[in-house]
Design goal:
Elements lengths: L14 E9 L4 H21 L6 E7 L3 H4 L28 E7 L2 H15 L3 E10 L19 H8 L13 E10 L1 H4 L4 H8 L19 H5 L11 E8 L4 E9 L4 H10 L4 H4 L15 E11 L2 H6 L7
Antiparallel strand pairs: 1-3, 1-4, 2-3, 2-8, 5-7, 5-8, 6-7
Helix pairs in contact: 1-3
Length: 319
């Protein structure tokens, strides 16, 4: 049975580090070996610093996949589908690799990232190293509970891990979309709490859906459910706030078992009511109200294969 990467379904941590790399041309064979070593490196550190609850995820970019694993491709894996959207001005970052490291100790994250970079350094260029942190009791910088609709228990695995019957080679892998959002907190904090709640669609304290008629169709919560509170979100969200002197927001990592889950859910948030509209690039209509207070400047699509796949891909003529 295929073994998934532990960071996909792990519980929330206090700190997250994100490493975005571009691979140097002609290094595919050695990188296949090194990518398979990263989970072992993380497992060794997790055992040594057991109280830190260290986990990680190795993901390969949609545009780089065929170069490093030419023998098989996850069904429906494609570049970030909304790059160039007029409303959000999304711009795709051409990253070949994404490594996510999460734990309850920032120093352990630092050690893990240092060792990963040392392992990969001769064969890659580091594009970005980003840092996220847990805010209050799992809240976003807006003050609202982050992703209160996230799946729990067995539903989490069902939603995020590829079904072995659907794609045996990629069983226990996961489609991953990465985004960095910047918040306009200056204008957000000028709103009354009741206005913020109607934009988000949830109660600010408890995180529960607002009752009608306060629950607006294009509120953030209902947009995530594709306009109907009976619809469950299609994605597992692993969001972590980031903050600097002049910028702040959230780093969003979305996992899904199906290749079109992100397109369906996020497309609805952008105002596209049907999948067929996405290729037409029509102006957004009834888009997520919270998009008036944030914008994304980094986005990319990846696939996080199973540990079993990473190990098998190192053997000649197997993948």
């Amino acid at each position: 049975m295929a073994r998934e990467q532990l960071g996909i379904c792990a519980e929330a941590n206090l700190h997250a580090s994100y490493l975005l790399f571009n691979a140097l041309e002609g290094q595919e064979a050695i990188l296949r070996q090194k990518l398979a070593r990263i989970p072992l490196l993380l497992a060794r550190l997790a055992e040594h610093f057991s109280e830190a609850q260290l986990t990680g995820v190795v993901a390969i970019g949609a545009n780089y996949w065929d170069s490093v694993y030419p023998g098989a491709r996850p069904r429906g894996l494609q570049a970030f589908p909304f790059a160039g959207n007029d409303h959000l001005a999304l711009a795709e970052v051409w990253a070949d690799l994404l490594i996510v490291v999460r734990s309850d100790r920032l120093d352990v994250n630092y050690i893990a990232c240092q060792q990963i970079c040392q392992l990969l350094k001769p064969d890659v260029d580091l594009l970005e190293q980003l840092q996220g942190f847990r805010y209050l009791d799992g809240r976003d910088l807006t003050g609202f509970i982050d992703s209160p609709q996230n799946p729990k228990g067995s539903r989490k695995r069902q939603l995020t891990l590829v079904d072995p019957l659907a794609q045996p080679v990629f069983a226990a892998g996961s489609y991953l979309h990465f985004q960095r959002w910047h918040y306009d907190l200056l204008h957000w904090q000028q709103l009354e709490v009741s206005q913020q709640e109607e934009i988000m669609g949830i109660n600010k304290i408890e995180g529960t859906l607002l009752p009608p008629p306060r629950l607006l169709a294009n509120s953030h919560a209902l947009s995530s459910r594709r306009g109907d509170e009976q619809n469950q979100p299609l994605l597992l969200m692993q969001n972590m706030p980031f903050a600097g002197q002049n910028n702040h927001g959230v780093i969003s990592v979305c996992y899904a078992a199906e290749p079109d889950s992100f397109t369906r859910q996020f497309g609805y948030q952008l105002g596209y009511q049907t999948t067929s509209q996405l290729s037409l690039q029509q102006p957004a209509n009834q888009y997520d109200l919270f998009f008036d207070y944030c914008h994304a400047d980094l986005c990319a699509a990846f696939f996080a294969p199973s540990l079993s796949f990473l190990e098998m891909a190192c053997r000649p003529n197997v993948i």
